[in-house]
Amino acid sequence: MVRGALLTLCLCALPVPALAHATAVDLETWITASGVEVRATAEGAIPVSAARLAVSVTLPGTPERFTPLQETAPGVYTASLETTPRGVVRVAFRDTTFPGEALTVGGETRLPTLEPLRLTLPPSPASVQPLIVYALIAAPVVLGLVALVFVAVSSRRTAENG
Predict the structure, then answer these.
(1) pTM above 0.70, yes or no
(2) pLDDT by residue (tens digit) across 10-29?
(3) Sign (positive or negative) of CA dihedral 107, 110, 111, 114
(4) Do 56 and 12 have their domain in common?
């Protein structure tokens, strides 16, 4: 029982890595005169929820102006645009879901169109800490807890033998 409690305590004490951008996220985008709708899915068409996405729709060569997207359904994000340019436009997405990380992806399309623009936020495995880092953090914690249990058991046996 003590071992189970120790294991649970150790696992709870470990930092859990946010697998930020560990997998590719597909963005299927429809751009209309009134705004943008994006369907964000991960591998296997799993909706990506709670992402912090922003979109920029500009003429090529002009500065990007990002507008935050709001999640309206699981994996569906929308934004209203002040104006939607016609002709060839540059569409860029910025993902700032995880603190200290920002991924940007973009492409060009011709507006108006009836076809969605498909882009992919690539995985960024550099943001995932190697397992050895967590092992090095956990080792002193585990050793300290084992020593604490050993001292407690020894003290109890000494007290019982009196």
Answers:
(1) no
(2) 444 444 333 446 788 999 99
(3) negative
(4) no
